[in-house]
Every structure is written in structure tokens, then in C-alpha cells.
Write a structure and sequence with these properties.
360 residues, 18 strands, Chorismate synthase, AroC fold, 5-stranded antiparallel β-sheet, alpha+beta, homotetramer
Chain lengths: 360, 360, 360, 360
């Protein structure tokens, strides 16, 4: 197990889906940052289940308790420990020997022998609570550099949206699918309801834009900006692909088209377009950073699947009951944002781009 | 800068394109591994320029010298230092103030102020020499677990190949584009020659398959197998996207289709297909690991581009002369293989899957 | 701040003296280790204040709650999160602007600007609760290799004991000063009571012996066994010196005397004495590891000291009231043991000396 | 093996005593630092053998070659690779099966099975060449904060010197024993010559003072300043003890005596004495940092010792010929300085105390 992420700013998470609690420790946050429980709670609320009929019915209040690192609503430079208790765990929905296809049941069984099978244990989406706690702090820290991190659901299955940045800002948080285009959001919603009825699930693409990032962050050759972002985001459960800028489309393009040209504008260098997605050679140029994550369909489906029970050594036809999201994309948005925020904050601190005297 | 990769097995690289040398240090390799200079040289030769008219004409012998860590053709557990001198550097092709679009010239200038502008310095593709040196050792180490790592060029621009594993093994090393389908290889070759004539460049997709990987490697939740692979491969210059298994295609799929079902076969668990790409919840299942990397077109093109000279503060139309590959995909293949090998070897050591007593 | 220790087995701690809680997360513990709350509680109880009139009167039950990582009294390979709430904090004893000589008040003020001044905040001895939680797990893990870690108070001021290993095992836990020689223990006790009456404090030396350590642990050249031990133990508050084997005495010795000679005994190599303290060139030889830590006198004393109040910018004569130990050595014993255990367990895992199949 | 030290500024070393070369890579040095080969060579020359009849007769020119990271005599932010070839290696002095008491021969044999037995291989004092290369860069970096690092031999056997800082500055580099008191230096010299005649060796104490260190460096609770220094210095071959400030003497002292009191002087806080050795709670206060390292006597002695030949499985009486120093203390001085410099520079960078814009 390896449950720490980041070098200058680090996030450590713990907790199983049906254990006592999930939580996070953020270490390396400069002292003097104004930080309230309410700020963190707001971010957590964006991830919480039970908000809409599109989501899991698990009813977790997900109330965060701050155990250390904050004094009089300010960070003091010591580790910030945050705790969220598990409340509404229905363990009877899970059976010990059954391997759910597409889940980590098999691989945890192979690696650890022994596992907390209830709700997937550590491999549950509930693990991301800690990531969002950490992301909240990173976002607050990045407010010092006026850096904003905005995510939205770009596509669900083959329903694709192409909203402008203005639209994303305006609409993505206003609909339960977190799509930046309100009309396409409706389409997505219907699709998800349809799949729910069928007892099936669907994947999608989450896009995150990092606006006004610090210039010159990213540490070649192994901790490049895109490398750290890829690592962070591919570590989220259910993510199968990552791209930055034009991503896989680049593979079909010519250099003469993809290269972003330079000009001067009032003696200041200007990059004429941003197909690179804000990064050259692993270092931010100051342009907005644009990344996408491919989210697979929820593996928990009601539809019958071929599987096995390894305790009883028998083959089964599995129909997963329980309270699962037919599409996890909307709830993945704050998680991808959070991991992006942690990477940007960590690399910014490493590059000296968040001067300690600016914090308070 | 952050030039070390890996925890149990680590690779540190150094060197600029037109400096004295490039090189690598591998630390953490168990003692007793049979390792000759010739073995490493073979891998380096696969990456070397000047092998075909498709590639750069830079003529580097790229001869490796082993400085430490090997005694009587065996590793002794101490760091293995490998050195490759730069010989055929034509520095006069580069001008100090010119920012080449799509290159790291701008971002290095912004981050470091001062830079070795000759050939891109540290941001040059020449940096990958060290990666291939490290990859050679990782591959040798993985021979203990009978793990093989095989790469090929899946597509160039919109020319896509779909070779079987047998075809890849048989043909990918036999043609200069490293394509597993000999007919499509011809097409690709022509495309590249055409672009070269036009003074332009093209991207492509490199696929790597890791055959017979150790079971149970990958360290959730932050050093998951796909997360470490993504990080490693996205750290290679010119890579804009990464996917594992069905990758971005997953985003369009239903759970009932994507999930890989289980059955028993002679009392042994069998996974009926491998859309997951060999990994569940960040841990290897033992199925082949399949990953893809999106390679952008070489930014160095002869075609005229809008750019600037920041020393003279003037706008220019840039036509890059010099000895550049119109498509770097074939030469990227051993690099993606190398980084994959290092990740697999590192995670295998961390999981105790390369028992020290098996090494010698 | 840097609150994580260890590579294969890691300990992260958090918490301030008068905040909500102190706690620890242990990551990297193999799955299948039998571990109960009671086992951890026993170790914590050895460190707890209020046990004797020699110690602080602060009455902390120090009850540990396990939040994750344990299922059915066994580890499952996921991070083990442990929480201890602060109960008996008398914050009114502390004043914000006063810098207590010998404490970290000044340096925290200089580094962080803002600090939780109550009871020293993060720099309090209370921080070691998390270390002891982690040490308990490391000790349990080392039971697999039959490695035992035994500490005792070797000296208090100039009262020095020289107990045999048998005496240490028999007597050190039986007296409040944790001295291995019961007669000298009485002397030490009287000394401490005398100093308490004077409102003064005294230092001492804690010795830890690691019995039957795994052979071949320690990673030259920078993570040598003695180097990791020194780092771990010097990170404990109030420790000013570290030595291994003959330590500083070695500096006065001749090679012909200090070198430990070799012989064969029934064809097995035998080391004729152990002045090296169980380590050669940074690697364990299998002999018992013997280390000492110099503990400074508690800086909190009732006797008047010259100091300053930086809020009011005035010079003061400070008499520290409150519930302080006149000699912290006895309570430091389990902490030095814990840090030693973590180092040995971590290095043992890194060297493959705790095979996963032996754990359960 | 673990051959990297440091987080923000890191040193990686490699090389065996009788292999092709020893060397070092420094990563994380900010760009723009003026750095010439000559500067590094000067530091190396202070460590070189063959300078006096007190030292080994091995005649190594120890000429450093810079392979990367420097352009036009300035650092460019990329890894600085430095190479020193081994020239005067007399391998015939060593026999494969013989375990030299006090050396790492036994422990390397136990850990790695296979080893380069010639001259101790990686465990040789020659390994410190890389440390001194790294230390040179760290020292240069610290010149930006006006921090100076000065070492001297405080004692040889029971001959102890107590020079003032002025004396150390004036005399320590002027005599072959590097003692700050010229009269005692003579005594030490005679002692060493006497031991050489007897075929024996002797230990000593090296003291290093870090003058005008940056304020507020050190990262509690695990990367405290004294913890990192201890780790760094205990990783040097032959060091058996470490102390800071009053060190082991503290264990005999009372709080009322050891605590350093505070006063104001022209409204500026003043620490009235420096028994703490420049550090409180793991963080520098700005006072000079004072540390000591206990150096054991060279294990290579001509005097007959009981040992074994594990190839021939026979007991032997060993008389070590070869070119060994009867006392390594003088040559250890630049090594302890170097490791101290790396720690201070690393922690200073981590604390933002070497602003990048001050570098060039």
C-alpha cells in the first residue's frame, strides 16, 4: 500500500467503505492560511451521495471533523488531520466469497489474501472522501495565486458536450450531471435514467481546466507537470485514460498544425493558441491547463453477469443489488478537480510559486 | 528538477543534448543478476539515431560505458552507473534567443532563466538514452519472472494497424516504423517520407504489452499500477495521452459490456476476456497489461512557423533546419518499453515478487 | 513540516498537545498480521502520564481508537489509522507571548509566525503518542522474526547503571525510572524527587537493545542501519546525542582493541565480541544492536529563568507552573523503543526479511 | 542499496574503490549559481590521499570531470553529474575470501552474497569522493546566505583540543591533522606516527560548526534539523556517534543550567548562550550550529588480528598490508562538512530560505 501523495504538499488518506471512518492528513501546508471547517465541508458536499436520484441512495452526512493543524481558523504549518465517520453502511449487501466483475475484489484477494469485502473496503469510491478533503485545502492554497480549478462532465457514453468556459462556469454546477451545456445535460440525465432502469451503467469523460496556473511549475524529467497530473488522476478508481491538451488527437496531427506559434503583443510574448494544454516540456507556460480523464462505467450493475464465489468454489450468475450510481462521472468531477489541485499546489510550492509571506 | 524515478528500483538520469555526456544510475537492483555491457548496448542500439532514412541523421555511436555496480558480469547490489558520451553534436544549428514552437524552449526560459539552448539541452529526446539504459536493466530483471515487454507503433496519423500479438512479435522489429503489420508498415513509411518532403511531421500511437506480468503488483491508492505507468510514460517528451485496457473507449461503454466475467476452468479462476488491460483497482491480475501512449508530431519542422527571438526581441518566421525525425514514434517505442519495464520491476520488487534468491 | 517516517513501513503522525486529538497512520504493514486494540493500548499505557509521582500529573486516559486497516483483528494491508483524543488539557497554564527557554516556542515562532502556543502545540512531548502507536505495530511485525526491542534508563544525571541483559529484562519495567538495576533505580528515584522539590530537572541516557535482529538489513550508503536509527531517534524531542556500539568511546580506542575478531565455531562464523553494536558498514550482522540516546533535562522548570514576552515586548523572570516531569527519561524509553522498532521493521521489509507468507 | 540523499537538493553517489570510477549527481540546485570545475576540485583536494605521510600512500589525482548541468560556468537547473576516475588501485593487496575485522566485508557478504572485495568495494572510504563533490555545490549554494561550514579535528584518542572559533579558522587547515590548536596538533601528529609504527590505528572526534545558518530551517517532526544532520553524518563510514550542542553532556545537566535564556537587546531578541547548538525543537534559531561526530579507528591495521577466510573455510591471523591511514579523522573533516552542507542547503531550499532570485 502506498497512501501518500505529493512532496512539498502531501496528502495521506485512509479508510475502508464499511470501517469506522475515512480520513485524510495534509502535510506541508504553509502556516497562516485561513481555513474553516465550512470551506472543507462545502467541497465534501459536492461529492456526497444521495443528492439526486441519479446517485447512490447511501445516505452519508459526510461531516468532516478537523483534528489538528488549524488554530483560530488558520493553518499553523502542522499536519491537518480530517476525519469523516462512516454512518450508513449496509454490509449485508455484500457476500464474502463473491468476486464482482470489474471491481478490485479479485486483485485485492490475490494481493492481500485477507480483505474487508464489505463494499469493496479500501477500493471503494468512498476512499475519495479523503482526496476531496485534501483537494479543498489545495484549492484554498491556490487562491493565493488566483488559480481556479473547474471540472465538468464532457461526455456520457456517446453524448458529447462542447461548452465554452463561460458555459462551464455558469451551468456545470447547476445540473446533477455537472455538464456545462444545459441542453446536453438533459440528454445525459435521460440516458442515465434509462440505463438505471435497464440495470446497466455507462462511462464518460471528465474534463478539468486549471485557470491562471502559476508559470514555471513542473519538474523535469520525471516529475513533469503532465506526468504528475496523469499519476494523480489515474490513481482515482475507475479512470482508464488521461490526456492533456489535444491528447490522443495529437497523434493524428501534423507539427505545422499542432505547434502553438509565438508573437509579441505590446512587447510581451503571446502564445497564439493553446493546443498544448498549458504545458511544454513538462513545465507550465501560464496558459490554462486542460486535461481529460476517461471514466469507465460503474462495474456494479443489476444486470446478470457471469462470476464466481471463491469461498464456495462455485460459478454464479451475479445480479448486484445495492445503492450504486449508474454513472459515476458527476461524482468523479470534484475528485479529479481535487487531485489536480493537489498536484498544482504541490508543484507550485516546490517551485517557490506560493511565497510563504503571501499566505497570511 | 526531479531526475529520479522509482522507489525499490530507481533510475536517475542526467545530461544535455550537446553537453559532455548523458547517463543513468540504476539503484536497488538485487545482486547476482547477470548483466553484460552488450545486453545494455543492444537496447541502446534500438533507440539510436541514424539507422534509417526515416530518422535523424545525427550519428551517435551511443556506446555505453559501465562505471560501477557490475563485477565479473554480475550486479553486486550497488548503484549501476552508465555513461554515454555525446559525439556528433552540431550546436551551430541552434540560436540562443529563438523559441521553437512546440518545444520546451519557452518553458525552460521561464523556469530556469538560464538554459543550454543547444539542441534543447535537457529537454532533448537525447535525454531518453538514460531511460533506455535503465530499461535494459529492468527488462533483464523481469526475465526472472518470465515477464516480457513488447512495444510497437500502432498508428501514424490516421493510418492504424491492428496486428495480433504473434504479428507484433514477428514483424515489429523488422521494419523501420516498428509496426506489427508489414503491409501497413509500408503505408506508414510512405506517409513519413511524404511528410519529410513537405518539411512537416506527424504523430502516432505507441502500444506496449507486458506479457506474463507478476500477479498482485501495484500499490493502492496512490501508487496503483496504472497510475505509476501513466506517470512514467507521460514523463517522456512528446507524450500527450495515456490509456490502459480499453482506455478512452471505456467512456462510451456499458458496464455489462466492459466488465470482464469470471469462470472456473479446472478449478482455476479464469478471466474470460481482458478489456481491463490486466489491472483491477490498481493491482495486476496476471493478465497481459496493455497500454497506449499518444505521441505528438515532432515540433521541429522545416515548414515556416511564426515565432520570436527573445534576445533580439523580434518576431520571426522560423524554418528549422537540422537533423530531425519527421515522426518520432518508432524511436519512442524502446523508450515507452523502458519506462514500462522500470515501473513493473519497481512494483514487483516492492511487492516481493522478484525473490532475491531467484536472481542468481 | 515533514510528518512521515519510513519507506516500506511508514508512520505518519499528527496532533497538537491541546488540540482535539493526536494520532498516527501506519502504512505498508503486510496483511494478515494479528493485531488487537489491546496490544496497541498496552504500549501506549507504558508512555502515559500520571502513572507515578515522578511523572506529570496530566491525566490522559490515552485510549486508542482504530479507524481503519484492521478487519477481524487482522491487518488487511491498508493504512492503519489510530486516534487518541486529548482530554485533560489545561490551556490556561500557557501564555501566548512567553517564550519558554529550552522549548521550541522561539523556533516555531520564527518558522511559522503563527502557532498553537498551548502546551507547546505540535512540539509537545504529547506528539510521541503517535510514535508509540506506530511502534506497537512495528514490534508486533518484528515478532515474526523473533526480534525483541528492550529499552531502559542507563543513567540519570551522573548516576549510571550497568545492568546485564537479564537484569534489564527482569527489572527495567518494574520500577518507575525504568532502570535495569533495582538498587540504582532507588538512587535515581531519590534524585528525581530531590530535583522536583528544587523546581529543577535533570537529563539522562536511554539505552535500547535490539535482540536477534534480522541479518543483512540497512541500505548503504545513505540509509545505513545506524544512519536510519540516528535519524529516527534524534527526531524525538529532547534528544541531543546518539551512539551505536561503543559510540563516542570508540574515538579513544585503538583499532586492535575495537575490531571484533572472527572465528569458526562448528563451521559457523562467530564474531568474538560485539563492540560494533551489531552493525558493520551500515548493515546488521545479526549480533544484538545496541544504541544510546542522550536525553536533555526537561526545559519546563519551576526555578526562575530569564526570558521574554514577545507579545508585550518585555523581559520577564519565568517560573513555569504546570504538570511537568522533572526527568522525562523513563517516559522516553517506550518512544526510543518505538522509533527503533519502526526503523528495524522498515529496513527488514525493504530487505525482504519479513516474508509476506510468514505474516499470517 | 539506497544511494540518494536529500529532498529539495539531492545527492546520488556511485562507485566502488577499485572499479572504473566514483561519482555523484546533484539534483535540485537552482539555476544561475556560478560554479566552476576548479571550485569543486579544491574541495576534492582537501580529501585526497597522499598529501602527507600521515595519510594513505594511494596516489589518486582525483580529478573531477563535469558531465552535465553546467553551462558557461553556471548551473542551469538540470542535474549536475560529476565523475572521478579510479587510477591507482592496487587490487592485489586484497584477497577474496578474507573478512577484515571491523570492515564491512562480512556484512556485504551476508547481504549481497556477491561483492567486489577489492579495497572494500562500495564500502570503501573512497565512496566519500562523491559526497565531497556534492558538498562543494551545497557550500557554494550556501554562500548566498553567507553560511559557512567549518570543520576540525577536536580530538585524537584522548588528546583533546578546545580551540576558539578564531583559532579553528586560522589553524585547522594549516596542519595535516586539521586541529584548531597548533600545539595540540603537534601532539596529535606524533601520536599518529607512533601508532603507525606500531601497526595500529586510533579514533577521534570531528567537530563541525555551521556559522550564520538560515533561521527557521528543519522540518518537524521527522525531518528535524538535528535528525537530518545525524542521519547524514552517521551514514559516513566509520562514524559511531553524533551529538549536537552539549550532546551527551546534556544528560548530566540540570534544566536550570542547560536552558539558554532570552533577553532583548535594542528591541531584538537575544539568546544569551548557545548550549542548544543552534537548534530548538528541530528548527534552527540562527545561532551557530555545533555538532560532533565520533570516528572509530581505521579497521585496517598491520597488527595481527584473528580472522577467517570464508572461501577456504580456515581461521587466519591477519596482518593487513596496504596503504591505510592510521587515523582517518583529518580526511573525514571535509566529508562531515560536506554532508552538513548538503543537509543545510536541502533544508534551506525546502524552507524557501534560498530565494531563486538571489542565486544569480
Amino acid at each position: 500500500m502506498s497512501n501518500k501523495f505529493g512532496k512539498a504538499l502531501s496528502l495521506t488518506t485512509y479508510g475502508e467503505s464499511h470501517g469506522n471512518a475515512v480520513g485524510a492528513i495534509v502535510d506541508g501546508c504553509p502556516s497562516g492560511l485561513k481555513l474553516t471547517k465550512k470551506y472543507i465541508q462545502n467541497e465534501l458536499d459536492r461529492r456526497r451521495p444521495g443528492q439526486s436520484k441519479l446517485y447512490s441512495r447511501r445516505k452519508e452526512p459526510d461531516e468532516v471533523e478537523i483534528l489538528s493543524g488549524i488554530f483560530r481558523d488558520q493553518t499553523i504549518g502542522t499536519p491537518i488531520s480530517m476525519l469523516v465517520r462512516n454512518k450508513d453502511a449496509e454490509s449485508e449487501d455484500y457476500e464474502e466469497g463473491i468476486l464482482r466483475p470489474g471491481h478490485a475484489d479479485l486483485s485485492y484477494e490475490l494481493k492481500y489474501g485477507l480483505r474487508d469485502y464489505r463494499g469493496g473496503g479500501r477500493s471503494s469510491g468512498r476512499e475519495t472522501v479523503g482526496r476531496v478533503c485534501g483537494g479543498a485545502i489545495a484549492k484554498k492554497l491556490l487562491s493565493i495565486t488566483n488559480t481556479k480549478i473547474i471540472g465538468h462532465v464532457k461526455s456520457i457514453g456517446d453524448i458529447v458536450s462542447n461548452p465554452s468556459l463561460e458555459y462551464i462556469k455558469k451551468y456545470a454546477e447547476k445540473n446533477p450531471v455537472k455538464c456545462g451545456d444545459p441542453e446536453i445535460a438533459e440528454e445525459m440525465k435521460e440516458k442515465i435514467i434509462e440505463l438505471k432502469k435497464e440495470g446497466d451503467s455507462i462511462g464518460g469523460i471528465v474534463e478539468v481546466r486549471i485557470l491562471n496556473p502559476p508559470i514555471g511549475i513542473g519538474e523535469p524529467v520525471f516529475d513533469k507537470l503532465e506526468s504528475e497530473l496523469a499519476r494523480a488522476i489515474m490513481s482515482i478508481g475507475g479512470i482508464k485514460g488521461f490526456e492533456i491538451g489535444k491528447g490522443f488527437e495529437s497523434s493524428k496531427m501534423r507539427g505545422s498544425v499542432l505547434n502553438d506559434p509565438y508573437r509579441f503583443e505590446r512587447n510581451k510574448l503571446k502564445i497564439l493558441k493553446n493546443d498544448a494544454g498549458g504545458v511544454l516540456g513538462g513545465i507550465s507556460t501560464g496558459e490554462n491547463i486542460v486535461l481529460k480523464a476517461a471514466v469507465k462505467p460503474t462495474p456494479s450493475i443489476k444486470k446478470s453477469q457471469k462470476s464466481v464465489d471463491i469461498r464456495n468454489m462455485e460459478e454464479i450468475e451475479l445480479e448486484i443489488e445495492g445503492r450504486h450510481d449508474p454513472c459515476i462521472c458527476p461524482r468523479v468531477v470534484p475528485v479529479v478537480e481535487s487531485m489536480s489541485a493537489i498536484v498544482i499546489a504541490d508543484l507550485s510550492l516546490r517551485a517557490g510559486k506560493i511565497p510563504k509571506d503571501k499566505v497570511n
